Every structure is written in structure tokens, then in C-alpha cells.
Amino acid sequence: MQPRRGRGQSQVGLGVIMLASQLLNVGLDRIPPVTLATIAAQVALFLNIIRPPWHRYDACISVLTVLRQGDYKRILISTFEHADEWHLYYNMVSFLWKGMRLEQRMGSRRFAILLAVFSVSCSMTYLALAKTATDFFHDGSYSRQCAIGFSGVIFALKVLTHQLESAPGTWTYLSGLAVPARWAVWAELVLIHILVPGASFIGHLAGILVGLAYTYGPLEYAVSCLDKIIAAFSAAATLEGCLRYHRNSAYQDGWCNATFDSILCWPPTAPSTEQLLPCPPFKGVDPNKFARRYCLEDGIWRGRAHHETLVGGWTNYSDCFIPEVKKLMDQLYSSSGDDAGKKLTIARVGRILEMVGLSVSFCCIIICLFLFCYFRRLRNSRTRIHIHLFTAILVLVVLRLTLYIDQYIIRAGDSNDGNERGIDNTPGLCELFYVLQEWARSATFLWMFLEGYYLHSTLTRDVFNEKPNFVVFSLIGWGLSILLTSVWAIFMAYLYTETQCWWGKHVSRLYWIIQGPRFMVIAANLGFLLNILRVLVTKLHESSSNDVQKVRKAVRAALFLLPLLGITHSLEMFEPPLDRSVAVFGCYTIVLAVLDSFQGFYISLLYCFLNQEVRDAVVKQWHDMSVQRQLGCRRPSHIDRKASCRLLHMHSVRTDAEATVEQTVPTENP
Asked: Does the active-site annotation cover 204?
């Protein structure tokens, strides 16, 4: 960027001629389309070939013109105007080499999005820095400095280029001086400010900060999201569309024809040449890597084998997968393709079993929550903990069912026209649902821990009349789960951007940010379980029961507490045995699906359906309703019916009072 000067004469001068000569020397056919279009547009804008609805005088950006006068269009247009032809020449020559390397590496669509994001970010950062300098130094000149030009974006691209192409510890030369590559952009900032005093130091500094924000901060995630959204809403590619797109491409007889492999559109390719295209932004795929195709000497696309030829050829996507997916694929196909197909069939059966289990759990939890909230006699401290646990499980069940149903609808739609949109393939929304799912899962684990802690405290200490501190319990159950999930989501957003919808998140190392605390919860609940069993055995020794009865009660309590306290979730800590036999994988999949998806049913059965207090409340309510119906049918007098119902109500209140007194006495019935 440079401070604003007049718009100047819009005529072809020496700088424009030298820029054109530079472009012709490189070769217009070698310059990627977005880079070439960006240079051509700025040259046309400078020469008034493109006549925008503003003057160059109105394009420069400053705190005074934007923040105080409210001319916000300058945030968008200041980057693409230039003060004079030499300003244009130096910026475009510098951009030419950076654009060629980055666009070939990133792909045209992503590079265009990158330029748009960098342009707006540089303008916003410039305003922030100028406003900060004005307030800090109490100098109004910073707010009046009006900058213009593309050099802020170029400095951001320099940071990105050094990050991608410079190995650690390498040096580069800047005006004959050797400087470390990582500090080259900072040295260039100081050098330009010394040699060209009229250059905008704040504008160039803003570009460096934007480049660092992309390299180490959130801008890369923003660019990736925009790239996925634009790719998702682009017109569906077909073979006819691919051929039409490359109809005017320069190619010769004997070349491999343009083709569409159902994912990517491949251009005509010279014989004995390997063609590269950026990987598609799919789940489990890194869009920064490249898919490969090879054109044989006779102008036919090569097949999967080295000398095999196929109609349409074969595309090598093996380099596109992220490391976690590569590992899973290698394990899945470690034995044979037939075994891999059988394992995939088992996985589909496991998914159906999961949906059945989640549906059953959903119905059971809804019934239990209704019973706990409806009957006043069940409102005690233990039941309040149950309600929190059931609510967390209900949220998790609803989210999982929503995602599974969405995936089924999308996959069914893909077989028709491929244009179905849903949670599973919508960037941003998909990640949000997975964050909510992990939050609900963490909350479930923590409330399981509080269930175990409360049960352990009840059996091992004489605190039956003490009420738990539900403020602390809520902070642990809900607050801590939000904290853990937020930390994990931030790390995933910044460090796990190479694949769509965080595919493979459960096998990445970042998953241990939330999986580690869950493992500690399981370990704590295991300790609670062992000590509870010790207490139960001790109490049974003090009773007059025989040894067989003691063992039966201890085993029954252990079997009830095992799914309750989340010990079964320890199976999730191990990777799926994809490299083992079909039988082993099938047992693992089915057992995990049953234990995990039916968890709501297990806890409902233990804490609600088999609970004596709940059963007594339901039986009593049914008995009262039966008596009321009998009174309403047999008593002709309205006054007598009201009196009878009042007596029945007094009897119910007395029964509830007796039940409340009984609740203060500990029971071994879970």
C-alpha cells in the first residue's frame, strides 16, 4: 500500500509496458487463471478500461474516511486501486510469481477465496492498527493517512509462501543480505520503509499480520469453510459438462481426452505425462494434496495396474486421504477384499442396531422423566441427579438419531440426483452438531460420575440426611462438560482443518482432550464400584444370610452398576479391530452397539422401571384412579362423590408422608 496521491493520467506508460513484457515472457498460457485475471483486472482498472462508479481519489482507506465518515466501500475497493503505474508494476510483478506458485498448489477456487479474504482482512487490520496508533501516540496524522494498493495482500502471500516452501533453518537473500527465511518478510518490511519512505508501513504490517493469522490462526479455517460451501453449491459436474468446459482447451492429436471420473474433471493431457489436480473437499480427504492420473504413450489413460488400460482411465486418490483414514483403510484391507466387504456389511448392521437401541432408549427416557416429574413422592435428591443424567442422555440420543437419519436421507438422495443437502455435508453445521454431540457425551459421563459418587457416599458414610450441593453438581455435570468440549472444539478448528466435517476426529490425537477426562471418570467409577461391592459384602457378612445368597446379591449389584457407572464405555478407548478376523470385528461391533445405544434403556430399567419406589407410586396412582372411577359411577349424589374423593385424597397425603419418612432410611435396592 502507498499513501494516496492523485488518480493520475490513465495512459499506457513505461511501467505498464514493462509489466506486459513480463507477462509475455512468462507466457500467458502458463499463468493460472485466477492470477492472470487478478492482474488483468487491476491493469484495466488503472487504465480506465473498467470504469467503476468511483474515482481513485475515493478509493484510499483511512480511519477518517471509513470509521468517522462512514465510507465503508473503501474497505473493499482500496486494495485494487494503485497510486501510479510504477506502484502497479512492482505490485503485479511480485504478485505474479507468488500467485503462480500458490494457485498451482491450492487450486484456483481456493486461491480466489484466499485473495478475497486477504483483501478484506488487510483493510480491516489496517484500520485497527491506524486507530490504535492514533489513540496510543495521541497523533491524529495516523487517522488521516490514506493508503491504497495491493501490497498488503502481497505481504500476506509472502508469509504464506515462506511457510509452505521454506524448510526450517533455511536462509534467503534480500538485496544481497542473507537473512533467515522465517524473518525475511520482517526484514523486507523494514527495508522497504527505509528505501521508500512514502510506502505505508502500517499497510504492509497489516498484510504480515493477516498472513500470520492464516498460518497460525483462524483465517485458514474461514477460507476452508468458504471453499467447502462454494464447492457444495456449485453446479454438479458431469462428463458432458467436463467435455464442454475443456472444449476450447489447447491440445493435439494423440493426447488423452478430457474426462470426468465422477469426482474431478480432468483436462486433456499430453502422452507420457502425469496430471495433478487438487483433492476434492470431502470427509477424510485433505484438499491441499493432489490426485493423480497418468496418460500413456499412446494417448490412453492408464488403468490401476502399470500397463492396464481402462475406459476413462483410473484416478489415484491414495495421496488425498488424511493419515488417520489411510491407517483405517490399510487395516480394513489388510486381509482381502472379501473380508473388507463383510466387515462393511457388519458395520451397516451395527448402525441399524444402534438406531434401534437409540429409539428404545429415547422412549424409555421420556417415560422415566415424565414419571420423575409427575409424582411428588419421587422428588428427592437422588431423583434430581437421575433427572440430570437422563436429560444428558436424552440430548445425546436426540443428536445421534438426528445425525443418523440425516446421513440415511443424504445417502438415499445421492443415489438419485446427488444434490441433497443436509447436516452431514453442510460445512459449519456438521461441525456444530458434532460439537454438541461431544458436549452431551461428556455431560453424560460426568453425571454418571456424580451418580457413582453420590451412591458411594450414601453407602460408605453416614450422610443419609444430608442433601448434595446441586450448584456444585451442576457446575461439574454441565459446566465442566462445556469447558472441556469448548477447548477441544477450539483446537479442532485451528489444527484439524484438512478434512471436511472433522472426519476421523475420533482417531486423532486431539480427541484425547475430551476422551482423557472420560477415561478418568471411568477409572473413578470403577473405584466406586469396587468399594461399593466391598461395603455390600461387609454388610452381607453381618447379616444372617447364607454364603450363596451373599454372592448372588453382590453379583447382581455389580451387574446393575456396571452399565450405570459407564464401565462399558471402556471398549470405546480401543481402536476398532479392523485388521482382525471378520468374527472378532463382528463381535466387537455388535457388543459395542448394544452396550452403547441401549444405555438409556439400561439406566431407565435400573433407576425407574425396577425401582420399588417408582413402581409403588405408579401402582398407587392406578389404584386411586380406579377408586375415583368407581366412586364416580356408584355415587348418585355430587356431594357424596366430593366427600368420598376428599377422604381418598387425605389417605393419599398420609401415604405420601409415610413414603417420605421411609426415604430417609437407606436401602440396598438400587
From this structure: yes
The residue from 610, 631, 646 where one domain ends is: 610
- As a whole number, the mean pLDDT across the chain is 77
For 413-429, what is each residue's pLDDT tens digit?
A: 544 444 456 677 677 77
Whether residues 316 and 359 share a domain: the answer is: no
**Positions of E strands within 230-328:** 259-260, 265-266, 273-278, 290-295
The Cα–Cα gap between 624 and 616 comes to: 12
311 residue type, one letter: V
Q: Are 514 and 484 in contact (CB under 8 A)?
A: yes
- Please determine, for residue 309, whether its predicted confidence score (pLDDT) is greater than 80: no
Are residue 306 and residue 347 in the same domain, yes or no?
A: no
- CATH code of the domain in which 37 resides: 1.20.1540.10
How far apart (Å, rounded) are the C-alpha atoms in residues 435 and 439? 6
Express each pLDDT in 543-578 by its tens digit. Answer: 555 544 544 444 454 456 555 555 556 666 566 777
Phi then psi for residue 178, to 5 deg, are -85, 125
Please state the pTM of the whole predicted model: 0.54
Q: Assess contact for 97 and 170: CB atoms under 8 A.
A: no
Query: Is 119 designated active site?
Result: no
Cβ–Cβ contacts within 10 Å for residue 165, how many? Answer: 12
Cα distances from 305 to residues 43, 80, 315, 331, in angstroms, run 49, 49, 11, 22
Least confident of 5-9, 27-31, 89-93, 189-193: 5-9
For residue 580, give its domain range. 337-610
Active-site position among 87, 162, 204, 388: 204
Q: Which of 78, 119, 151, 481 is flagged as catalytic?
A: 151
Asked if 211 and 244 sit in the same domain, the reply is: no
- Window from 315-319, 604-608, 619-623, 659-663 with minimum mean pLDDT: 659-663
Rounded to whole angstroms, the Cα distance separating 96 from 111 reads 13
Rounded CA separation 520/484 (Å):
13
From the list 113, 95, 197, the residue with the least C-alpha distance to 152 is 95
Specify whether the CB–CB gap between 63 and 140 falls below 8 A: no
CA 303 to chain centre: 36
Amino acid at 659: A
How far apart are alpha carbons 553 and 670 in whole angstroms? 11
Q: How many CB atoms lie within 10 A of CB 574?
A: 9
DSSP 17-55: HHHHHHHHHH-GGGS-HHHHHHHHHHHHHHTTSS--SS-
